[in-house]
């Protein structure tokens, strides 16, 4: 099972589009409205932000995926439709209604997602025109346009696909995501959409998504801010005609593994494209008492501003890693910890080890830098991803609205 270049239209029966609607009202040509559509109804599942402040599209789409079925999603960038009160809820519902009418669906079959500036109501005249334009443009070749339309401060689009045999049928999963800043575990500031032509029972889809998210998007951080708009939706239309995937079956295990592979790939791409980032940080923790301990430890390191700054400066300041492990809340004995930078041992049984600064410098110049900590306190392990903290992060976020 290998990932390949592709996106949300890689599976059978999915169409997409991305168009310019000038949602921010500043002209230009950037695509900012996307429509994702399946030719047939889909089993659907979603996971959403844990922020108490939740954008109108999150409220609307969560209610619809809770029913286990969708057929389309309309997405905009440039405006988050968050902290917009009752008007925001009405506008999100209108987005679904306009999309449904254009595609010949019931409004309840359409999910809504938004990303961008918080606290500004949507320009509904431009939104209506954009949705009409996007609905007409959906096609099997529209995945790239859709991936571009959902980007905000992202420097690159994030897409992937995978195919596998499932009960004698070839099924495909395709995906796209956006995310660069306001990224923190318990979803990141991101929108992500996974499509598949596999037949998956809705409960099995929801469970597989929750489990895969815990090991992927919930294990990345860029800046410690959990967004108001996080959303990850999976649509399964069954057009591959495989035996239905149900909980507890061998087919479920294969499908869940494929879904996890797709989500981990996208999560790492989001972390790698953190605002202003120049490096991907990967923190591997093993030998923890529990999985929860391992996850806490790994995420604390990736979230440490001091670790991130040292990574940017290419400084082998491994004490900052130990410091973050110590305040993470994970259970372990500091006197047992071993720590590596790449394959370079820096600490053994809680004590420093002489290492080559020149060898460390070579490792720190790589685009992906890996730290590994063995806590020697159990058998659980986890991996988290983050990025370095650069001058450009402040520049980007100091003028985000302008």
Describe the structure in brief:
This protein is of the alpha+beta class and 402 residues long. Helices cover 33% and strands 27% of the residues.
What is the H/E string?
Answer: EEEHEHEHHEEEHEHEHHHEEEHEEH
Low-pLDDT ranges? none
Kindly name the structural category: alpha+beta
Helix-residue proportion? 25-40%
**Fraction in beta strands:** 25-35%
Distance between the termini: 44 Å
**Radius of gyration from the CA trace?**
21 Å
What overall form do the CA principal axes indicate?
A: globular
The overall strand count is 15
Individual helix count: 11
Main beta sheet, described? Answer: 9 strands, mixed
What value does the average pLDDT take? 92
Task: Please give a structural write-up.
Strands 1, 2, 3, 4, 5, 6, 7, 8 and 9 form a 9-stranded mixed sheet that branches. The chain has 11 helices and 15 strands. The termini are far apart. The radius of gyration is 21 Å and the shape is globular. With 402 residues, it is an alpha+beta fold. The longest helix is centred in the middle third of the chain and has 23 residues, at 250-272.
Topology overview:
Layout: E1 3-4, E2 14-19, E3 33-48, H1 56-65, E4 69-79, H2 85-103, E5 110-117, H3 124-137, H4 143-149, E6 158-166, E7 169-178, E8 191-196, H5 202-214, E9 231-236, H6 250-272, E10 280-288, H7 291-303, H8 305-312, H9 319-327, E11 338-341, E12 344-348, E13 351-352, H10 357-364, E14 368-374, E15 380-387, H11 391-398
Parallel strand pairs: 4-5, 8-9, 10-14
Antiparallel strand pairs: 1-6, 2-3, 3-4, 3-9, 6-7, 7-8, 10-15, 11-12, 11-14, 12-13
Helix pairs in contact: 1-2, 2-3, 5-6, 7-9
